[in-house]
Design brief:
This is VRK serine/threonine kinase 3. Residues 1-10 have a biased composition (Basic residues). Residues 78-92 have a biased composition (Pro residues). Mean pLDDT is 82; it is low at 7-41 and 71-109. Among the domains are: 123-222, Phosphorylase Kinase, domain 1 (2-Layer Sandwich), CATH 3.30.200.20; 226-420, Transferase(Phosphotransferase), domain 1 (Orthogonal Bundle), CATH 1.10.510.10. It is α+β, with helices and mostly antiparallel strands. The protein has 11 helices and 11 strands. The longest helix is centred in the middle third of the chain and has 20 residues, at 241-260.
Length: 435
């Protein structure tokens, strides 16, 4: 079963890990000690009662928005004339000012609810004036609706199938559209493939986008095929090592591309990986609703706990950075891919049955981050543990927040088992897929 997703909440981050940043605090032991000063009580989350840092904007446990700290008043020594104008946010160092300052994410609109499916044969018009007819609903999940669609305007081959993603106008699909417009134009992808001598690169080709009925936003892609999750749900459940490593190498290629274009994916999961039943050499990484621009203008964002909604994405697979509400970085995507590999090969993770207890999930990920061998033994039980997977997880979980991964070395790690099998990551994936 796919991991539970958490939508629409923003929270904290994870770079230099300390005991006060592990998410394991309890209300009985408030985190109130500040460096260089004596202990003092801090604020508490009104939703779950957890003690939180005074500068946090979101609770690291439940993800709820915290109330702004009360403004401190001091009595003037003498009567003063009318109060001066409030200082600008940039000039005020107080917690109050930083909590309410206007910025790109403030004030934040509430997230739209799930989109209501549209009937088959509905025709949508994109911003270029092209018409797209919905054929059938393929998938429905927390990140929108995916339809099989056909061109209805004569500008594209009539019999060619397309994948059309539909969601609420102000849902995460807006973030996804921004990603494709900024970082995944077809020409940019082709140049990168040639420069890196990559024969296949599974970045979706977005051929159109637009609004419908003033309440829906949609994106049109060349046919994506079927999600890996739907293939596993057919009864396959587990992948063989050959297929798992083939898919992982192909996803690594995609991650290197988007990371070099200033973004991280933020939600690596089988639901967002697509296989083409007609051509199993095609592996596509889709689902960019949680994409995050970690390096705008070439400058890596700072690790800051409490800056985004904690636990955002698919809880089973997201990184500890995402659990703590910091902006995900390159290591976050690679950590999530490692969890996915474990799930594909073993069918479960130590926290798979605890997804409704996010704090437990975080504690277990923290524990096994420091003991990869124990994690693998727990998942594989009596089965042989692939050395490639252990080496991959150890290297990825040791990365620093701003550190650039060695993608070539990671690909080589996962490619060695394929070489022994006389296979390549760019061959047809060794998975039975029906249309």
């Amino acid at each position: 079963m796919p991991g539970r997703r958490v939508r629409g909440r923003r929270g904290t981050g994870a770079g230099t890990r300390t005991q006060t940043q592990t998410g394991t605090q309890t209300p009985e032991r408030p985190r109130a000690e500040l460096s260089g000063g004596s202990p003092r009580p801090g604020p508490f989350c009104p939703q779950c009662g957890l003690a939180v840092e005074p500068t946090f904007r979101f609770c690291p446990a439940c993800g709820g928005r915290l109330p702004a700290p009360p403004e401190e008043h001091t009595e003037p020594a003498a009567p003063a004339p009318s109060p001066p104008p409030a200082p600008s946010p940039a000039a005020s160092p107080s917690p109050r000012a930083s909590a309410v300052r206007l910025g790109p994410r403030s004030p934040r609109k509430p997230r739209a609810g799930p989109a209501v499916p549209l009937p088959a044969d509905t025709v949508l018009t994109d911003q270029g004036g092209r018409l797209w007819k919905l054929v059938r609903l393929l998938e429905q999940g927390g990140c929108g609706l995916v339809y099989e669609a056909q061109s209805a305007s004569g500008t594209c081959p009539q019999k060619q199938s397309y994948s059309l993603k539909l969601d609420a106008k102000d849902g995460r699909i807006y973030n996804e559209q921004n990603f494709f417009q900024r970082a995944a134009k077809a020409g940019t992808v082709e140049k990168w493939k040639k420069w890196h001598s990559v024969p296949l690169l599974g970045i979706p080709n977005c051929v159109g986008f637009g609004l419908h009925a003033d309440s829906y936003r949609f994106l049109v892609f060349s046919d994506l095929g079927r999600s890996l999750q739907s293939v596993l749900s057919d009864g396959l459940h587990l992948l063989r090592e050959k297929a798992a490593f083939q898919i992982a190498v192909r996803v690594l290629d995609c991650l290197e591309y988007i990371h070099e274009n200033e973004y991280v994916h933020g939600d690596i999961t089988a639901e967002n990986i697509y296989l083409n039943p007609a051509d199993l050499t095609q592996v596509t990484l889709a689902g960019y609703g949680f994409a995050f621009r970690y390096c705008p203008g070439g400058k890596h964002v700072a690790w800051r706990e409490g800056s985004r909604t904690p636990h955002e994405g698919t809880v089973e697979f997201i990184s500890l950075d995402s659990h703590k509400g910091t902006g995900p970085s390159r290591r976050s995507d690679l950590e999530s891919l490692g969890y996915c590999l474990l799930k594909w090969l073993c069918g479960t993770l130590p926290w798979s049955d605890e997804l409704d207890k996010v704090k437990v999930v975080v504690e277990q990920k923290e524990r096994y981050r420091k003991d990869v061998r124990c994690l693998l033994q727990l998942c594989f039980r009596q089965r042989s543990i692939p050395d490639a997977l252990q080496n991959y997880l150890e290297q990825v979980l040791a990365l620093e927040y701003e550190e650039k991964p060695d993608y070539a070395a990671l690909r080589q790690l996962l490619g060695k088992p394929l070489e022994k099998m006389k296979a390549s990551a760019y061959n047809s994936v060794d998975v039975p897929v029906v249309p």
